[in-house]
Amino acid sequence: MVSKLAGTQNPLGRRGFLKLGAALTGGLALGAKPGHAEPQTASPPADAPWSQSIGPGVVDRPYGRPADTEAGVIRRNVPWLTAGTESSISFSPLQDLHGIITPNGLFFERHHAGRPDIDPDRHRLMIHGLVERPLVLTMKDIVRFPSVSRIHFIECPANGGMEWRAAQVNSLQFNHGMISCAEWTGVRLSTLLEEVGVKKEAQWAMVEGADGAHMNRSLPLNKCLDDCLVVYAQNGEALRPEQGYPLRLVVPGWEGNVNIKWLRRIKLGDKPWYTREETSKYTDLMPDGTSRGFTWLIDAKSVITFPCPEKPLDGPGQYEIRGLAWTGNGKVKRVDVSTDGGVNWQSARLHEPVLSKALTKFTMPWRWDGQPALLESRVIDETGYVQPTITQLRKERGSNSVYHNNSIQTWQVKPDGSVFDVQLA
Amino acid sequence: MFSSRKRPLLLSVGLVVAAVTFASAAEPGHYGYGKKATPEQIAGWDIDARGDDGAGLPPGKGTVERGSEVFVDQCAVCHGTFGEGEGRFPKLVGGAGTLTNDRPELTVGSHWPFAPTLWDYINRAMPMPAPHTLSADDVYALTAYILNLNDTVPGEFVADRDSLPKVKMPNRDGFIWKDPRPDTISKPCMSACSNPADIKIISTAEGKDLTPRTTGPLDTMQPK
């Protein structure tokens, strides 16, 4: 594993690895024991110290954690972006992730009033309004219902929002890390709504969290009955508190903020509620001064995750360009990759599984000649929708709409292998 | 999971079972889990007030003057005494006519379409350190004060469940509630899609010093 990482994605070599180790023990002091003395002879041919000793036994770490040398792989925030961290966002380190599933501790966070710590025994879900049998459900009740597991991404519509005016932030994590993907387990919302009995006048649902923001959004009833899930598990274990423990809504393919965390109430009504979070926030300001509301759908988007500013190239030679693609419209159909700023494109290989409203991995072999390059990826989803350029989006929407920037990312590769976030004419 | 030979049979059995299950599950109370929500339980949590018509607004009322007092106590530390905003906390006032500007100011006065939404949001989410602790009267008073700061209502305005839905917010008609996307159409050209000489970098993040650290411990950059 280490040699694979060192050889491809993290071309630090042994010297870099040692520097990293020194930085981690010196800078972080995460409880790692002081390392063994470096052997006089390199390994190989010598055995490494860990090959000549016995390690800690089972349940040394009853709940496992990443290797100490991975301590820099963490969610990060942009301090200048928000007034404080309680109503803010953190970004997943996509540059260090492999595959389509986001580890639970690295799933991006968006809180509106901080992360509540909820006692599951005291948590309740109330379903009322235009229903036949208003209900209060305990967590035990909810887990008893027929269960389903589905893999879906969740993306904040502000992902890429710092780039509407210009290339600003030189980072994959900070420009694209407001997306994560997990296997969610819970009960279909349609099952719960059938259990309470939907009155025929009902057209909308108001979904609300138990956090201090009492975060709430309106959803059309047909989406609720289509594919929404009320989930209590994430990648096989209970939801993390940051992700809504003990209960959250998953609204596949729709913007993150409607996937209400810490879900405590669902009320059916005949009209939308026009809450603060769907009027003054999460609406898209157009150049003519009008705002688009109820823009729930996450349009198709893709990004190259290697190389990227955090993972530069280590000299000319053979590489595998890697990336992720997704669409709220269903499945990814095709991803094309360009190394010359969009003059010529080649279709990348899509890796199974290609799931609806989930991250899809793509790769393309590339022999880098050491010359400057402009790397781009472009996804086409199963509806035929083609990921636009930032120029196309600006022409339609100006640059004040904050949300739903799903434009093609351009990475500039310089002859020394360094990578920069740029935008093209 | 299944061999392909057996799959059609299993699938059709599955469909029949699914159909039967669905038919019975469609009856409310099929599972019988949970307890009927009592009127008292519903009353405690049923806090929403609908934006466009104010449905759900409770009894009570508040004046602009009372609102100014509550605002100083509860809100001014973040939003400024007159709603001008402290630091990066939201401005509540101003921005009229800026929505088409290069740097628009989105505030209650310039952007919010519905006055009852303001009552609902203050009630459910403010003040930030102690949300949902203000009385209905004080929330009405704050709503009146903030609307008055924006010149949306006169100084003698009294906010209540009847008056708030009648307030015409300046930007009430500024929203399009039907998503017009997809709003871009492209053909996925594969080769010689543009003239290589026309490919120009128009902006770069290089050297902008806006990027927090992406290695080591969390960044401690101060707000810029």
Description:
The complex is a heterodimer of chains A (about 425) and B (about 220). Chain A is α+β, with helices and mostly antiparallel strands and about 425 residues long. Chain A has two domains: about 180 residues, Sulfite Oxidase, Chain A, domain 2 (Alpha-Beta Complex); about 120 residues, Immunoglobulin-like (Sandwich). Chain A is globular. A two-stranded antiparallel ribbon of chain B has the order 2-3. Chain B starts with 6 loop residues before the first helix and ends in a 20-residue tail after the last strand. Helix content of chain B is about 30%, strand content about 5%. Chain B has a domain of about 120 residues: Cytochrome Bc1 Complex, Chain D, domain 2 (Orthogonal Bundle). Chain B has six helices and five strands, in the order H-E-H-E-H-H-H-H-E-E-E. Chain B is extended and about 70 Å long.
Spell out the key features of this protein:
heterodimer; A: 425 residues; alpha+beta; Immunoglobulin-like; 2 domains; five-stranded mixed beta sheet; five-stranded antiparallel beta sheet; 13% helix; 28% strand; disordered N terminus; B: 224 residues; mainly alpha; Cytochrome Bc1 Complex, Chain D, domain 2; extended
Q: What is the strand and helix layout of this fold?
A:
The complex is a heterodimer of chains A (425) and B (224).
Chain A: H1 2-7, H2 13-27, E1 88-90, E2 109-111, E3 125-129, E4 135-137, H3 139-144, E5 148-155, H4 172-176, E6 179-188, H5 189-196, E7 204-209, E8 216-220, H6 221-226, E9 229-234, E10 237-238, E11 248-250, E12 263-269, E13 284-285, E14 291-292, E15 301-306, E16 317-326, E17 332-338, E18 346-347, E19 349-351, E20 360-368, E21 373-381, H7 390-397, E22 410-413, E23 419-424
Parallel strand pairs in A: 3-12
Antiparallel strand pairs in A: 1-2, 3-4, 5-6, 6-9, 7-8, 7-12, 9-10, 9-11, 13-14, 15-16, 16-20, 17-18, 17-21, 19-20, 21-22, 22-23
Chain B: H1 7-25, E1 35-36, H2 39-45, E2 61-63, H3 64-74, H4 76-79, H5 115-125, H6 136-149, E3 158-160, E4 175-176, E5 201-204
Helix pairs in contact in B: 3-6, 5-6
